[in-house]
Design brief:
CATH class of the largest domain: Mainly Alpha
Radius of gyration: 23 Å
Strand order of the largest sheet: 1-2
Number of helices: 15
Number of domains: 2
Helix content: over 70%
Distance between the termini: 35 Å
Shape: globular
Number of strands: 2
CATH superfamily of the largest domain: Amino acid/polyamine transporter I
CATH topology of the largest domain: Amino acid/polyamine transporter I
Length: 443
């Protein structure tokens, strides 16, 4: 996954910071999905989405809707995830077929109640509203990275992983857009329920019976998402533990089940705690920051991988690569800052011009040092450079409070890495080199 890729291309420090945010991303993502499970379960029982949560008025806002059902669901998912990888895959396969049928029902039945007037106004909050929403919608792209964490358990990863990643992303994005259009045609945007939108929408158009089908289908789909993320996050933690940046205890695999029980249980315990207290709004914004930050780092890592090889790339080409990367990242940050603080367009033209010229200079002025052997990202450096620009631009649309929480978490990661992770990973490397020398001398 991203951790292994960044560790090779940008070193242990960047990989560890990314790894901490990847783990945070999975914990927050599963916590948010578990809370959605409770909302749809409430509508299935003919209740308001918040009825099964416990309101504690003495707690701060956004932390005062306690969700015990989310904890029960997470415990169930943990049991499935540690029992068997093959069993989890079979469950996902069956659940996915059922989920596709529900999606088709929602689209076909929902469009029979479509009212084109609901699309007026088409963009009620203007371009800024679109980009703010786009930043939050990165929430939906967390699970795709989990595909790469299953490489060790795939027969032909060089072929199967790219097909799985690209194919699932294209299909899911298309389904996401169709469902969004259907929902907005069924209900005016002001009336869409944040917790259980489709169930409430069917009830609003007079199809109260359909909300039960929708709620049951969504619960099935959410359960699948929870299980996929539980499996993926445990593999991430296991891989990080193998580097000794965190305790190797997390890397232990159960002899009978063949699953990383310690990593799975730990991650889902953290997920349960977050899901019990925290509202969906806080979770989605913080999750989007982590996801966008990691995507941006991976795009930088891809450029470095293609343009730099130690011992082969000349100092001149290396320096030009560094300058181009600094200008690409700097101009992208400038675009995000200017967009967030001003309504003018001159600054945007200047910053985007710098981004374009920097990418052009990298494309024309620095030779690629490495070509992909089996499958590679096309249009390098344009595509990864555009990814850097878009990710940083969307980061500029997220609220200040979410960045403060992100900063606190990153600060904790830095302290841990300096005091513990750096030394543990160094000792592990030295131990591996010593073992290798001993083996060579005995041969």
């Amino acid at each position: 996954g991203s951790f292994a890729y960044l560790r090779v291309e940008l070193g242990d420090f960047v990989a560890f910071i990314a790894a901490g945010n990847i783990l945070l991303e999975y914990i927050i993502g599963n916590a948010a999905v578990a809370r959605s499970w409770t909302s749809y379960f409430a509508t299935l029982c003919n209740h308001h989405p918040n009825d099964f949560r416990i309101h504690v008025s003495s707690f701060p806002d956004s932390y005062n809707q306690l969700d015990p059902i989310a904890i029960i669901v997470i415990i169930f998912i943990c049991t499935l995830a540690v029992a068997s990888t093959k069993g989890s895959s079979r469950f996902n396969y069956i659940a996915s077929i059922f989920h596709v049928a529900i999606i088709l029902f929602i689209v076909i039945a929902g469009l029979t109640k479509a009212n084109p007037k609901n699309f007026t106004p088409f963009a009620p909050y203007g371009p800024r509203g679109i980009f703010v929403t786009s930043a939050v919608l990165f929430f939906a792209y967390v699970g795709f990275d989990a595909v790469s964490t299953m490489a060790e358990e795939t027969k032909n990863p060089a072929k199967d992983i790219p097909i799985g990643l690209v194919g699932s992303m294209v299909i899911t994005t298309l389904a996401y857009c169709i469902l969004a259009v259907t929902l907005c045609l069924m209900q005016p945007y002001q009336q869409i329920d944040e917790d259980a939108p489709f169930s409430v929408a069917f009830e609003a158009v007079g199809w109260g019976w359909a909300k039960y089908i929708v709620a049951a289908g969504v619960i099935k789909g959410i359960t699948t998402v929870l299980l996929v993320n539980a499996v993926g996050q445990a593999r991430y933690l296991t891989h990080i533990a193998r580097t000794h940046m965190i305790s190797p205890w997390f890397a232990k695999v159960h002899e009978r089940t063949g699953t990383p029980v310690n990593a799975t249980a730990t991650m889902l315990a953290a997920t349960a705690i977050i899901a019990f207290f925290t509202s969906l709004g806080i979770l989605s914004n913080l999750l989007s920051i982590s996801t966008l930050f990691i995507f941006m780092l991976v795009a930088i890592g891809l450029i470095v991988r293609r343009y730099y090889v130690g011992g082969e790339t000349t100092p001149s080409d290396r320096n030009k690569l560094i300058i181009c990367l600094v200008l690409i990242v700097g101009s992208s940050i400038a675009t995000a800052v200017y967009w967030g603080s001003s309504d003018g367009w001159i600054g945007l033209v200047l910053s985007n011009s710098v981004w374009f010229l920097s990418t052009l200079a990298l494309w024309l002025g620095v030779p690629q040092a490495k070509k992909p052997r089996v499958w590679g990202v096309p249009l390098v450096p344009w595509l990864p450079s555009l990814s850097i620009a878009i990710n940083l631009f969307l980061l500029g649309s997220i609220d200040k409070a979410s960045f403060e929480r992100f900063g606190i978490w990153t600060g904790i990661l830095l302290i841990y890495y300096i005091l513990i992770g750096l030394h543990a990973s160094y000792d592990s490397v030295m131990e591996s080199k010593t073992t290798a020398r001993e083996v060579n001398s005995s041969l």
